[in-house]
Design a protein that fits this description.
Blueprint (H helix, E strand, L loop, with lengths): L1 H34 L7 E2 L2 E2 L8 E2 L3 H5 L3 E2 L8 E8 L6 H10 L5 E4 L1 H6 L1 H9 L3 E4 L13 H19 L6 E2 L5 E2 L1 H9 L3 E3 L16 H8 L7 E6 L3 H16 L3 E2 L2 H5 L10
Parallel strand pairs: 4-10, 5-6, 5-11, 5-12, 6-7, 8-10
Antiparallel strand pairs: 1-9, 2-3
Length: 277
């Protein structure tokens, strides 16, 4: 009887030790991956807001992004906003958005895909003529982190730039936004090699569902308290709500003491934020 109990105890202890060892091995493996992800590992851009009116923390640091000519914040000591729109298709709201930007003398950036230029050439020309940046959102809006071949990556970027040139007679400015905010370290390197500045964002909200548009109140609940110095704001030009609230939204931000800057200024030498600021 004594021997049976002893064996049970030994087996129990051995199981506990084995579980502990496996836990240590697993946790150390996760830690190492967090320290140095594979070059083509997919990363979904994400933000953490801790205090109202203060810049959020990105899931990649400013120092890290800076290596690849990438930004998600401007100078956090200045109440400047950089307004950007993603345009995957035209829903009928861009003319109103452009009218409002003109009223407030705001220069924005529109990140477009191939289909947008093909179907809305006059709107793309208007964006350009009114001084806005037209940026590269890739030709097909693929998950670019899944493209490991440099030639294929370049084709997605160059095809959009070529179409823009054919449509407007001008060269596309070298600003890039990864579709859905999904990227890899190698993607950032490839874009940098092509001369692009990669632009993420520090403020956005769920505004892209056509059949589930936020109310004005819901939009302001996100966009007013979370605005912060140096904010790169992402809105979708496909949003009915955005078109309806934009005039009032810009007015509210102006009343809070904010002015609007250009990505050209931001990426051309304006002091960048650090995560410690």
């Amino acid at each position: 009887m004594f021997l049976i109990i002893r064996r049970k105890h030994v087996l129990t202890v051995m199981c506990i030790v084995l579980i502990a060892v496996l836990a240590v091995v697993f946790s150390s493996r996760v830690f190492r991956q967090g320290e140095a992800l594979p070059a083509f590992a997919s990363v979904n851009w994400g933000l953490g807001f801790s205090e109202e009116g203060k810049p959020p923390t990105g899931n990649a640091s400013q120092e890290y992004l800076r290596q690849y000519d990438s930004w998600y914040l401007g100078d956090t000591q200045k109440k400047t906003i950089y307004l950007t729109f993603d345009a995957g298709y035209e829903a009928g709201y861009t003319p109103s958005i452009l009218d409002t930007l003109k009223k407030h003398n705001v220069e924005a950036a529109f990140f477009v895909v191939g289909n947008y230029i093909e179907t809305c050439p006059e709107l793309v020309k208007r964006m350009t003529e009114e001084g806005h940046i037209v940026g590269n959102h890739t030709y097909h809006h693929y998950n670019m982190s899944q493209i490991s071949d440099e030639a294929a990556f370049n084709e997605e970027m160059d095809s959009l730039a070529d179409l823009y040139r054919e449509t407007t007679g001008k060269e596309l400015e070298k600003f890039y936004r990864p579709p859905q905010g999904i990227y890899s370290e190698e993607n950032l390197k490839m874009a940098q090699k092509l001369g692009y500045k990669t632009i993420f964002w520090s403020l956005a909200y769920v505004d892209w569902y056509q059949d589930k548009q936020p109310t004005k109140e819901q939009a302001f609940e996100k966009l007013i308290p979370r605005i912060h110095p140096g904010a790169i704001v992402l809105l979708h030009s496909t949003s009915k709500t955005n078109a309806e609230i934009l005039d009032e939204l810009l007015t509210k931000w102006e009343e809070m003491g904010y002015t609007f800057g250009s990505l050209r200024e931001l990426t051309g030498g304006v002091k960048q934020a650090t995560d410690k600021e």
